[in-house]
């Protein structure tokens, strides 16, 4: 049985607004047709200041078995509400109230290489949750496990590469494992994401120290 292709909504790249026109994901990624994506970074303060990363499933066609944004995905054509909530439940099995989210706005992302011409308006959110790793579940088979990575280590990886021991949960067992820069999605360190990551770390620092966030991606 053929897998039905994901249909997205075209966005105007210059104006940053949706056009109402549908476009197939494969075409959007080949022709640089802008579309909307959603990102959720789950962070926690207990047992220490950490960022949660998903491990992309082994069968993923792009970047399998890499640590990536806690939740991320495209917005299907016609979906107008609960966009990040849908992805969060499907990927890591969590639900939350809209008021718990910290909206960092849109990041204008562009990636061009021999295989891809990708333009995306990425709506980025933060969620503070001290729930144990064992409370997460993986409902759509796109994520194999979740990792709790110290915040300071995440920042330091942009300066130097070294290993750290972290906890992960694979849906059944909690595992202690060692990771380094090679285990993370390489695009997190790409020049196209430099401003994104700077704002993200600043937002997390503000959230942990002040309880509120003033910076945004926009």
Can you put this structure into words, describing what you see?
By secondary structure, the chain is an alpha+beta fold. 18% of the residues lie in helices and 37% in strands. It has one domain: Nucleoside Triphosphate Pyrophosphohydrolase (Alpha-Beta Complex), CATH 3.90.79.10. The longest helix has 17 residues, at 194-210. It is globular and about 45 Å long. The model has no long low-confidence stretch (mean pLDDT 95).
What is the topological layout?
Blueprint: E1 7-12, E2 17-24, H1 25-31, E3 35-44, E4 50-56, E5 67-68, E6 71-74, H2 83-92, E7 102-112, E8 117-128, E9 143-150, H3 151-156, E10 164-169, E11 174-179, H4 194-210
Parallel strand pairs: 3-8
Antiparallel strand pairs: 1-2, 3-4, 3-6, 4-5, 4-9, 7-8, 9-10, 10-11
Task: Give me some keywords for this one.
218 residues, Nucleoside Triphosphate Pyrophosphohydrolase, 18% helix, single chain, two-stranded antiparallel sheet, alpha+beta
The beta-strand count equals 11
* Total DSSP helices: 4
C-alpha termini separation = 42 Å
Supply Rg.
17 Å
Order of helices and strands: EEHEEEEHEEEHEEH
Mean pLDDT: 95
